Amino acid sequence: MKKKVFLSFQILLILFISSDVYLFPSTTQKTIWDRIMAEQSELNISRGVHFMNAADYSKASIEFLMAIEKNPSSMAYTMYGASLYWMGDNEGAISNYDKAISMDSNNDIAWQLKGISLARDMKLKDSLDCFKKAMEINPNRGDVLMNIGSVYFSLNNITDAISYLKKAIKVDSSNSLYYYQLGLIYFSTGDYYKAIENFDRAYSLKSDYEDAALWLGISYEKGGDIKKAQKFYKKAVSLKPYDFFARYKLARLEKVPKNLENIIEPCFGLTRNDEKGGIPLQISYSVSKFDSSSDYVNPATKSLYENLIRIDENQDATVSVDIIEMKNFTLEKNTGTELKKNLQSRFNPLTYNIKSKTYSVSASSLEEKKKQIKKITDDINSLLKNDADYRINFNIQTHNKAEANEQQKNDLTYIPRNVGNDMGLWIIGNPWIAVIEEDIENSKNFKTSTERITAALGMLLIGDISGSENLFMESESDFEVISYLGRGVISFLNGDRETAIKYFDMALKKDPSNKIAKKNITWLNENK
Questions:
Q1: What pLDDT is recorded for position 272?
Q2: In this structure, what DSSP letter does residue 409 have?
Q3: Side-chain half-sphere of 303: how many Cα atoms within 13 Å?
Q4: Domain match, 46 and 118 both
């Protein structure tokens, strides 16, 4: 079977930021003002890095902009680009990395981060050139070596891929991500013993590493050790309950029908409240020449509306907005009697007009939520001047309604598997798709209803809607509720809400206590 290609990247920002990075070069040409501004710029960068580590990329970007204003250094542009990358503006990130490199061609961090952004755009050979330039400047960067290996793997050069991952581990043998990445490469070659060895090392270094636990299970299953496979699939589900791929793999090995139903039933919910409200959504938009006319569509507030309207009706949300008016800036060289006056005014920069506001969206029906969001977007637009350029950053945090101190059990949303993780890992292509396809191919006769129902879920996860629907129908006699839930999801994906409601209603009639069916019907009725 043709192997799928995948690729992983990480951004390790704090690792690269040491006091040596910011040392100001000593030259006789620099004025007192220049030196003061350079020192203040370093403080802004330091505060920005603090915000980056707290995943508050909007606040970080403002600090980096202030750093650029006071002293437009290569590092300031690098870090500003990184903050934009994490808010989804890859084009803006690359532009700032290029500025950084034009100022200092030996800035290995800028080369590394530009390589990551290019890889995100699938420009793999250009990405590889950037990573190799970073390695040339600093050969002892384990993350750069890992990324070079990752690109080689995506280019089907397995020998060099393994070689560079081993070099990365030699540089830092305590980094779990390097072992995990090497495990994926060995798994793709069919060397399950070495895959297990590396996944196990990654998991032992980071006990909450769900991806490592999951791929340990897959590798053990490939090697024929079903008990260990089940153990690690259960661990993966406990670490990440909304990982439907992990649930699918665990269900395939379950022999008791009722247990199988309990494992896969959460995969058919149309809404989910993530634990503790989930990870904040942070997005950034460049708004050029704002126009207050009635037919003008502000791309930033349009995106905000689209994201807020999707929030579950049982969740509240807090929206933090930073509005930055962008202006061209030329640092004046101030000396003598003007220095004190400028110090007082320019330590709190006036060039960027920054407005920050926080809004609340309460849990409510769809119509009421639309009214709340309309007030927010109207207020934001009222703060913008005609014919001005802005950078607008949003931070959207959801909360469980009347959230209790004790952890609540949360429902799950039907979404494709999230292939990123909290380490900043990017996977281009999905290796789990190849695993599901191989499972289905190896059991294509589907002799039992258990095989049919798990294959139906697998097909649904990889987007084979018609094949999935047929198998759900064939499984109805033994897994009636699951069959109805699955066909309801498929009808929803096909845009047929009435039929979806019909199937969820059938599931509810069969099992009146079924929470998934109840919530799906409620959500569909309120989101017409």
A1: 55
A2: P
A3: 18
A4: yes
Q: Note whether 467 and 372 are same-domain residues.
A: no
Q: Whole-prediction pTM value?
A: 0.73
Residue 52 in contact with residue 13, Cβ under 8 Å? yes
Beta-carbon contacts of 116 under 8 Å, excluding residues fewer than 6 positions away, are 9, 11, 85, 127, 147, 426
CATH number at residue 284: 3.30.1490
CATH code for position 481: 1.25.40.10
Q: Where are the beta strands (DSSP E) in 179-301?
A: 281-287
Identify the burial level of 380 via C-beta atoms within 10 angstroms of its C-beta, where 0-12 means exposed, 13-18 middle and 19 or more buried.
Answer: buried
Q: Which domain holds residue 489?
A: 432-526
Residue 80: HSE in the Cβ half-sphere, 13 Å Cα cutoff:
24
| Sequence-distant contacts of 414-421: CB under 8 A, at least 24 apart | 414/267, 414/268, 414/269, 414/270, 414/489, 414/492, 415/242, 415/272, 416/461, 417/243, 417/244, 417/245, 417/461, 418/243, 421/210, 421/211
Question: What pLDDT does 499 receive?
Answer: 94
Residue 516 belongs to a domain: yes
- The predicted-structure confidence for 60-75, as pLDDT tens digits, reads as follows 998 999 898 888 899 9
Separation in Å, CA 11 to CA 208, 231, 429? 20, 31, 19
Residue 283's SS3 state is: strand
| Under 8 Å between Cβ of 16 and 109 | yes
368 and 316 in one domain?
yes
The answer to whether residues 17 and 51 touch, using CB atoms and an 8 Å cutoff, is no
Give the span between the Cα atoms of 362 and 207, in whole angstroms.
36
Query: Domain boundary residue among 139, 155, 176?
Result: 139
The continuous run of DSSP H or E covering 467 comes out as helix 465-474
How many structural domains comprise the chain? 3
Task: Say yes or no: 306 and 368 in one domain.
Answer: yes
Which strands sit side by side in the sheet containing 389-400, from one edge to the other? 281-287, 389-400, 315-326, 353-361
φ, ψ for residue 358, nearest 5 deg: -125, 135
Which three-class secondary structure state does DSSP give residue 181? Answer: helix
Tell me: do 450 and 384 sit in the same domain. Answer: no
Q: State how beta strands 353-361 and 8-9 pair.
A: unpaired
User: Considering only CA atoms, which of 186, 213, 188, 190 is closest in space to residue 202?
Assistant: 213
Question: Which regions of the chain are under pLDDT 50?
Answer: 1-29, 273-278, 329-350, 402-429
User: Which amino acid is residue 361, in one-letter code?
Assistant: V
For residues 53 and 110, state if they share a domain: yes
Cα dihedral 338→339→344→350 (10° resolution): 80
Q: Which residues contact 213 (CB under 8 A, 6 or more apart)?
A: 203, 232, 235, 236, 239
d(CA 336, CA 338): 6
Residue written as token pair 């532009």: 95
Report the C-alpha dihedral over residues 225, 229, 232, 236, rounded to 10 degrees: 160
Tell me which DSSP letter residue 413 carries.
B
